[in-house]
Amino acid sequence: MSAVAALRLPLAADLSGFVKLLQRMQVPHRVSEEAGEQVLWVPDEISEDVRSLYARFPHGDPEQQLELPAIGSTSRRPGFVEQLRLSPVTALVLLLSLVVGAVTLLGENLETLRWLTFLEFRVVGDYIQFTPLADSLAAGQWWRLVTPMLIHFGFLHIAMNGMWYWELGRRIEARQGGINLLGLTLLFSLVSNFAQYVFSGATLFGGLSGVLYGLLGHCWIYQLLAPNPAYHLPRGVLVMMLVWLLLCLSGLVSMIGFGEIANAAHVGGLLVGCFTGLLGGLFARRRMAP
Q1: Of the residues 32, 47, 192, 209, which is catalytic?
Q2: Is 218 annotated as catalytic?
Q3: Residue 44 and residue 122 in one domain
Q4: CB 70 within 8 A of CB 131
């Protein structure tokens, strides 16, 4: 099943009601901005039905009880394979994390792990000796600035991070496209990794959590400035993640046995995510203004 552009509309056009209507009907879709237009993508086989539906209900009328036409097989939720095809960059990052988790044995295989950590290291007896970052960068190992996001230490670590990246990454990919999601992911990884390095010094750290807080901040601030159904997060989700951040900063989470938490990475990711959300939201708001 391939996705096609069913609608191409000016940025000033309000698609929020129609998007809500598609959500009510459980029609797989995503909206992106391309060449000064907002583009609605749907599976190829139902594109004509979606265009006909838009001709009848351009504003969606999501609060009214309408006699809605049947669209393809949309009486069910999009299948997992369909969601993967609509969110290829999200799926790629998760796949890379799983592959790295497998080859590093979730942090146990130090010989493989050392190629992906922020600082190169070698094991000498019972000790780990780290190579200065400047030496690694001088040797051309620039990938180290972002690859720690793919490292996870334990099944629960990768499961929780993967679940939240799947939830937040798909939202950004649907709203702003895969290239923007990839760029934001790399930026958030770079900033959160460097923040953790500055705060904790030469230590082993990794995981997608710094990126996740960046995605959260981006969606949060962007949605405040340029509301869109794709970025609407339940209030409970936002509160839960911010409370979790505060608990981690308090040291309570480490005390009860969750291990050392990369708090600087979380805070750094959240701050840069709020900043990108501010820039993106202001830009989208300006372009949508009449």
Answers
A1: 209
A2: no
A3: no
A4: no
